[in-house]
Amino acid sequence: MKILLLEDNKTLHESLKAYLEMEHFFVSSAFTVDEAYELSYAKHFDLYIFDVNLGNENGFDVLRALRESGDNTPTIYITALSDIASMTQGFNAGADDYIKKPFDPEELVLRIRSRYLVDNLLYYNDLTYNPISREIKQKGELLILSSILSGLFHLFMTQKNRVVAIHLLLDELNAPNSNALRVNIAKLKRKLNLNIKNVKGVGYMLEAL
Q1: CA gyration radius for the chain?
Q2: Which DSSP string corresponds to 94-109?
Q3: Are residues 102 and 48 in the same domain?
Q4: 151 and 107: one domain?
Q5: Model's pTM, two decimal places?
Q6: What is the pLDDT of residues 157-179, one digit of tens each?
Q7: CA distances from 172 to 90, 100, 146, 152 (A)
Q8: Using CA atoms, how far apart are residues 10 and 176, in angstroms rounded to an integer?
Q9: DSSP conformation class of 52
């Protein structure tokens, strides 16, 4: 599971990042609002964890802007604010959950596992996909893909019927270039019988059959 952590307190940030990685999550760090915007644009994440008080800015505004841009990534706020007005503001901005500082990192992990690592299998034709474990089955039989094809497949399945931007797809390649991307998408289409369409100049989209 890929997590974007936005927290400007370096000590808390580093300790929380270390704990999440120990629990086998992949964590990208943002210490400022600008870094959070850049990372959310450049990469796909399964979960955002945002602090609220960020110097002269706040996590409410960050999430509101992301939601307005069409980004629906699940989001947990970590904050010392606990009054109803602040919580209401956060949920109105698009938050999915709150955890109040100070907190035990184990509590955060328990919330993530119970709420976001549920059985959310995705289906396409005769394929069954678990986006958390990245396990692919075809007619009940486990399929093994290369790391590149697996990364591309994950993006297409989790964004089915939506255009996946070229820069996100290129990020899954060892040596990113448009020719290599076309070759790998062609391999994926042949191997799994996927209906992937090229949206010229924008990206690619997996269309439901």
Answers
A1: 18
A2: T--EEEESS--HHHHH
A3: yes
A4: no
A5: 0.56
A6: 988 888 999 999 999 998 889 99
A7: 33, 35, 11, 7
A8: 32
A9: S
